[in-house]
Amino acid sequence: MGKMILIKILRAMTTLFLVVTFVFFVLRITGDPVSAMMPDDTDPAIMDELRKQWGLDRPLGIQYIEYWRNLAQGDFGITYRDGRPALDTVLERIPATLKLSVSSFLFVLIAGFPLGVLAAINRGSSIDRLVMALSVTGFSLPNFFLGILLILILSVQFRLLPAFGSGHWYNLIMPVITLGTAGAAVIAKFVRSSMLEVLNAPYIRAARARGATEKSIIWTIALPNAAIPVITVIGFMVGTLIGGSIVTETVFAWPGIGRLLIDAVTSRELSVVQTVVMMIAASMVIANLTVDILYLVIDPRQRFASGSGE
């Protein structure tokens, strides 16, 4: 198992390296930050001086090597407009994004698991069909559409919730629903499928034969076993929530790193964009790596397979 974990860690590091490299070159190929920031009538000499000051006049290869050299020293670059460290600018926004992402993740689990179990134990009934219909609808709705729809209904029409802001707990309600609905739909569907497979397993029939109650079978035997394959989906869900927060934060003017990323791309703040993308990619890679390792730990079949491979 140790060899398998080491391979997964190396793959995760390679993925992160490739993402950072790709973003570095794409940002510099697609536009000039100086031209984007300065007025059209700016003296070319001034613009050339700014490029020289920010190191944008050197060849891309030299810039790339210098970028990694600075990263190794903990230097993520500075913002062009105010000269602040890019890392400080990003770290200021992380608490807001964590607040939204963690709340949305809890919503995904709290809504998805019970709905999936409910559909499984009522297979073929109107309840099952209703849950599956809601799952398909929730997964199909784009974040931006659902967010705008909630604003129109709950903020504009009924004036129940504020459309923007982050100062109170109720500011979280609409962003959390927007960000977590698709994830809850996916979890519900996977839990239902996994529960149906487990409920037909021989050890479930044996438990019934021993006189175990249906409630005990579902919650203490079937659900823990059904949750094992769902763990992999949850790992991907973390990445989906982080990526989806970019759109959600923009729709609700939530002051997190997703909204910061959009603003930084618009203003061509290369250091900020690179830092945000690196953090998002790292969080997604770490989440998936953690799930892979947990899967090896809790599933004896995976441990046996890795042991046989070694």
How would you describe the overall organization of this protein?
The chain is mostly helical. It folds into 2 domains: 2-87, no CATH class; 94-255, Orthogonal Bundle (MetI-like fold), CATH 1.10.3720.10. Helix content is 78%, strand content 0%. The protein has 14 helices and no strands. The chain has helices spanning 2-29, 33-37, 44-53, 60-72, 86-91, 94-121, 126-140, 143-157, 173-199, 202-209, 214-251, 257-267, 270-298, 300-309. The longest helix has 38 residues, at 214-251. The radius of gyration is 24 Å and the shape is flat.
Mean pLDDT over all positions: 87
As for the CATH topology of the largest domain, it is MetI-like fold
Count structural domains: 2
Helix count from the secondary structure assignment:
14
Q: Percent helix among the residues? A: over 70%
| Fraction of residues in β-strands | under 5%
Major sheet size, sense and barrel closure: none
Number of strands: 0
CATH architectural designation of the largest domain:
Orthogonal Bundle
Low-pLDDT residue spans: none
Query: What structural class results from the helix and strand content?
Result: mainly alpha
Specify Rg, calculated over alpha carbons: 24 Å
Q: What would you call the shape?
A: flat
CATH superfamily of the largest domain: MetI-like
Topology:
Blueprint: H1 2-29, H2 33-37, H3 44-53, H4 60-72, H5 86-91, H6 94-121, H7 126-140, H8 143-157, H9 173-199, H10 202-209, H11 214-251, H12 257-267, H13 270-298, H14 300-309
Helix pairs in contact: 1-13, 6-7, 6-9, 6-11, 7-9, 8-9, 8-11, 9-11, 11-12, 11-13, 12-13, 13-14
